[in-house]
Specification:
Helix content is about 40%, strand content about 5%. With about 250 residues, it is mostly helical. It holds the Pfam family Peptidase_S28.
């Protein structure tokens, strides 16, 4: 499966990270640019995170039609880009697991077909990278959410959530004092789940394919209070923000 092939790729990538010989093998198999550093375990993890990030974006942009939305208008992703990436992962091309893993991420990073080599320091385009920075600041100061991956129930590698490390990283990246990194800021300001009974005329919609739906309020999680209260919706076959797009004939049925 796509998930199992992905896990094999990450496993092989990280297993080679500790030695200079292993990192040189990674460099060759991943087709890194000559100037791209791969001199340490941290560099290899940065490459792994770079590949993983492409799937985060493609999952959000997993629309049934070509779309430039996730790329901020700087290019176009194919319909269902996650499926296209998985075809690369599961291909019988004879390439190594690392090569196929990196190739699959290029559905996102090399959407234009113009890249000759891989550089984990470079995002897909400046605007999308800027969006990521702005979101990171908001994550740190207003919407700190616990996120983890275990490499068993998902298609990635072990990344346990560490609140102290997350807070420390936010303080370091943004030169913030500890009082500005409050994990419970949103709950304190808006009341959290306990405030829902007092909410009126709100539809809480999530796309079934949107990775953010795992942190959303889904049908069955709260008592639905009808049109004058809270109505949670899960849109079948929908990715990120598809409910906010202009309608089109090839929209997922909802």
């Amino acid at each position: 499966t796509c998930a199992s092939e992905s896990r094999v790729g990450y496993s092989q990538l990280l297993s080679l990270a500790d030695s200079p010989e292993g990192r040189e093998q990674i460099r060759q198999e991943a087709k890194l640019c000559k100037t791209t550093p791969l001199d340490s375990l941290d560099d290899v993890y940065q490459l792994a995170f770079w590949v993983q990030s492409s799937y985060d974006f493609m999952a959000m942009g997993d629309f049934p039609y070509p779309s430039s939305y996730i790329l901020n208008g700087h290019g176009t992703l194919p319909p269902f880009p996650v499926r296209v990436a998985c075809e690369q992962l599961c291909s019988d091309s004879g390439s190594t697991a690392i090569r196929k893993l990196v190739d699959s991420s290029l559905v996102f990073y090399n959407h234009s077909g113009s890249l000759d080599c891989v550089d984990w320091r470079v995002g897909v385009n400046p605007d999308t990278s800027l969006d990521g920075m702005l979101w990171d600041y908001q994550f740190c100061t207003e919407m700190l959410q616990p996120m983890s991956r275990d490499g068993k129930r998902d298609m990635f590698f072990s990344q346990p959530f560490d609140l102290n490390a997350t807070v420390s990283g936010c303080m370091s990246r943004w030169n913030l004092t500890s009082d500005r990194v409050d994990p419970f800021w949103a709950q304190t300001r808006f009341g959290g789940k306990s405030a829902l009974p007092s909410v009126t005329r709100v539809v809480l919609s999530n796309g079934e394919l949107d990775p953010w739906s795992r942190g959303g309020i889904l049908p069955g999680m709260v008592r639905e209070t009808g049109p004058l209260g809270v109505t949670p919706l899960l849109i079948k076959g929908a990715a990120h923000h598809v409910d906010l797009f202009f309608s089109r004939s090839d929209d997922p049925p909802a």
